[in-house]
């Protein structure tokens, strides 16, 4: 099973033995589930080169307090939303989330025209394909997006799960 997020239903399916292996963006907190971090990428701000903040090489959360911020839907990434809001509040900043946009291309199009900014991982911003956008680190935002392979610890030595874990380890080495 491959999913962008390890959902509660996927974790339940792992625990109930309906699936043997999962893949998603959050590490499980359950000790009965093993996991392997496949990738880790810093979260930063994506903005138009015409945006006033584009001249800054790095930003702080206070710099974007009055900006219109677009995010992907909370339902897709509930922990990321909570982590962003919490990180800002801890620094006395209230983020103005103008909208949640499901389609990543539509979200980026709104950023390109300068109507808003958004948070994305550094790897998602590919300079070769996103020449009309800039990615900037946010110095006081210590958030990373990770992807995890997940399985039941008790099954780690079974042939199928061991082969999947070994494949995941090999794939991680190549990244």
Automatic annotation (TrEMBL):
Single GO molecular function: DNA-binding transcription factor activity
Phosphoprotein keyword on record: no
Entry-linked Pfam families: LysR_substrate (PF03466)
Cross-referenced CDD domains: PBP2_LTTR_aromatics_like
Keywords recorded for this protein, A-Z: DNA-binding, Transcription, Transcription regulation
GO cellular component: protein-DNA complex
Domain LysR substrate-binding: 7-171
Alphabetical list of Gene3D superfamilies matching this protein: Periplasmic binding protein-like II
Domain of life: Bacteria
Signal sequence interval, chain numbering: none
Keyword Transcription regulation: yes
SUPFAM superfamilies: Periplasmic binding protein-like II (SSF53850)
Family the entry assigns: Belongs to the LysR transcriptional regulatory family.
Name under which the protein is recorded: LysR substrate-binding domain-containing protein
Source organism (scientific name): Natronospirillum operosum
């Amino acid at each position: 099973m491959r999913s962008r997020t390890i959902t509660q239903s996927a974790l339940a399916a792992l625990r109930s033995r309906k699936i043997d292996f999962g893949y998603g963006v959050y590490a499980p907190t359950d000790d009965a589930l093993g996991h392997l971090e496949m990738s880790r990428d810093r979260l930063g701000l994506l903005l138009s080169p015409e945006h006033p903040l584009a001249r800054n090489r790095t930003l702080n959360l206070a710099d974007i307090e009055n900006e219109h911020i677009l995010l992907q839907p909370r339902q897709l990434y509930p922990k990321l939303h909570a982590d962003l809001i919490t990180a800002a509040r801890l620094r006395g900043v209230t983020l103005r989330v103008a909208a949640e946009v499901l389609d990543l291309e539509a979200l980026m199009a709104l950023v390109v025209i300068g109507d808003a900014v958004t948070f994305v991982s550094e790897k998602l911003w590919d300079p070769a394909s996103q020449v009309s956008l800039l990615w900037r680190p946010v110095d006081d935002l210590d958030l990373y997006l990770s992807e995890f392979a997940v399985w039941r610890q008790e099954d780690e030595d079974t042939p199928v799960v061991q082969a999947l874990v070994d494949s995941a380890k090999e794939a991680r080495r190549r990244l």
